[in-house]
Write a structure and sequence with these properties.
Layout lengths: L9 H8 L32 H8 L23 H8 L7 E4 L7 H5 L17 E5 L2 E11 L2 E9 L2 H5 L1
Antiparallel strand pairs: 1-2, 2-3, 3-4
Length: 165
Amino acid sequence: MGAGEGQLSQEDIDALLGGGGSDEGDGGDPFGGLGDDSGGGDDSVGMPSDDILAAALGTGSTPPPPPPKPQGVKKSPGMGGNNANLNLLMDVTMALTVELGRKDMFIRDVLQLAEGSLVELDKTVGEELDLLVNGKLIGRGKLIIMDDYYGIRITHMLNVMERLI
């Protein structure tokens, strides 16, 4: 082969074009006889060799080496691939909301709200409250008071099938 792997020398380029290394005597055919269907019965006349074609395409008789295996977290027999991906998400923040209740109101009623107005919610005292993560229901719990702070004691976590409904 001419220059380096995947590169062609001028001699290889000329051989591919059928010029044989010179610009003279090509009979006006810019392809140097390649694809000339007008005569001869031998289609291989003027065609480049397989070695020259392989050099032009950057392919050789030996296959390229396999790509290197990524160096990353080695899995132990008990550790699944999902655990490593899950560990990447552990520091992502999410909005946790405890919903005391809801109320559908007309716009005229919302516009009449002022300080001291009461809004009746759809939940009763002692009823379980909804626990939402990023607006999606994930569980329910009871309201508790701890040192002048409100909290929720989780009584039920929804399984995957319940969350889809």
